[in-house]
Amino acid sequence: MKKVIFDCIGNSVLFILAGLMLIRPFSDYRHTQDELFVVVGIMPFIFVAYLAAFIVIRFLIFKNEKRPENSALGSELAYADEREKIIAAESAKTAYQAWFSA
After folding, report:
1. Which of 36, 37, 58, 81 has a Cα at 20 to 30 A from 6?
2. Where are the beta strands (DSSP E) in the chain?
């Protein structure tokens, strides 16, 4: 559960930083007579620094986590569980019906 919370918060921050990084060049530019200059600012550097820090911290915190041989058995939504098979079958059936009745 700790890994899920860490990933969720980290990815949310990455999403916000990516949005801020992409908004900046479109809102601040300089136009001269012959050329158009885009001002990069500091946001791309903050984004890259946070991305590198996030990857390193995630690796260091979760490097000792045991990984099962079969990755499907170690996931939170393991298909080996009987209840998960029923849920997956029902959701596939509902999606199929919604797709063709729409």
Report:
1. 81
2. 29-31, 36-38
Angstrom distance (rounded) from CA 18 to CA 11: 10
Count H helices and E strands in the chain, helices first.
4, 2
User: For the purposes of burial, counting CB atoms within 10 Å of the CB of 58, is it exposed (0-12), middle (13-18) or buried (19 or more)?
Assistant: middle
- Residue carrying the six token digits 């601040």: 28
Residue 29 CB contacts under 8 Å (≥ 6 apart), including other chains: 36, 37, 38, 39
* Residue 70 region by backbone torsions, left for phi larger than 0, else alpha for psi between -120 and 50, else beta: beta
Assign 40 to helix, strand or coil: coil
Residue 64 has pLDDT above 80, yes or no: no
Given the structure tokens 């899920």, which residue do they identify?
4
pLDDT of residue 15: 94
